[in-house]
């Protein structure tokens, strides 16, 4: 905790690796209850990313020392997560309210653990928290809709579809706050590196050796919004079918989710099909409400595409042109990859286009 509380300063002053090397080997048996395991995992995942990437992507550490690797792997196994920072660490568990009785708004929130990146990093994490919060009524709507099909109750299903649409629109609205709180140059040159993984990453081509865990290097993808359960659940519910390449990547990202979240997606997969139910019902009102959900989801993805263009593609070109002062040199092929290691623009466009293909057409 002492290291985690000073993480940005330790990284900026190039002192984190030395501090970690002096750390005692921590024993997980003193952790009691889920919250402590989750906090241990949060702290160890952040320290790991800082340790590997302290000197930027030109000089990554290829070996994680045993006093960090052993407890991190043990905590991760206990929680059913891979030993690398994932979306649920960076976002889902990494916030606290300043005034516990106050509203869940950005001015009343703070991160628990941080990297370099100052206010932009805080904004990046907390805006994403607010997107997840906006999705909560949508997740509840999926449950209501599935129950409405088995009853069957057309009114309840219609209400659930409307709630889902509003929730998706609210997510897009929340995502818009990125522009207010996150500086693209800082995101690109400072923050992005700490979210990078060691799978399909030329900076660590064979992966990372977890000392005391495995003699062979292990490869894991970096943090990615594709590790959020929300859009996976919405896609399954609406029957969105992605291209094989996109679907393979998205399915792999499910291994980076908490087990209970993966299980929720599976439940939606095996539930009765809302598409089939609406088509066979011939109910025009339900069909319209369903299509509005699909269109709202495609609009959210179009908006996300514009954000990625601003924060990755445009910022990358700018960094190349300027030879950014924050980094020893611009990283290889920055336009190509998101932090999860996907060829990002073609992937996001395909995912958006396939979303629109899920619209229902009334059977003649």
UniProtKB/TrEMBL annotation:
Which of the seven top EC classes does this enzyme belong to? Answer: oxidoreductase
Task: State the reactions this protein catalyses.
Answer: L-tryptophan + O2 = N-formyl-L-kynurenine
- Determine the domain of life of the protein's source: Eukaryota
Show the InterPro entries listed in the entry.
Indolamine_dOase, Trp/Indoleamine_2_3_dOase-like
**What's the EC number here?**
1.13.11.-
UniProtKB keywords? Dioxygenase, Heme, Immunity, Iron, Metal-binding, Oxidoreductase, Tryptophan catabolism
Pfam families the UniProt entry points to: IDO (PF01231)
Q: Does the keyword Aminoacyl-tRNA synthetase apply?
A: no
Family classification: Belongs to the indoleamine 2,3-dioxygenase family.
Recorded hits in PANTHER family, A to Z, give: INDOLEAMINE 2,3-DIOXYGENASE, INDOLEAMINE 2,3-DIOXYGENASE 2
What exactly does this protein do?
Catalyzes the first and rate limiting step of the catabolism of tryptophan along the kynurenine pathway. Involved in immune regulation.
Q: Mind telling me what this protein is named?
A: Indoleamine 2,3-dioxygenase 2
Q: What is the lineage of its organism?
A: Eukaryota, Metazoa, Chordata, Craniata, Vertebrata
Q: Which gene encodes it?
A: IDO2
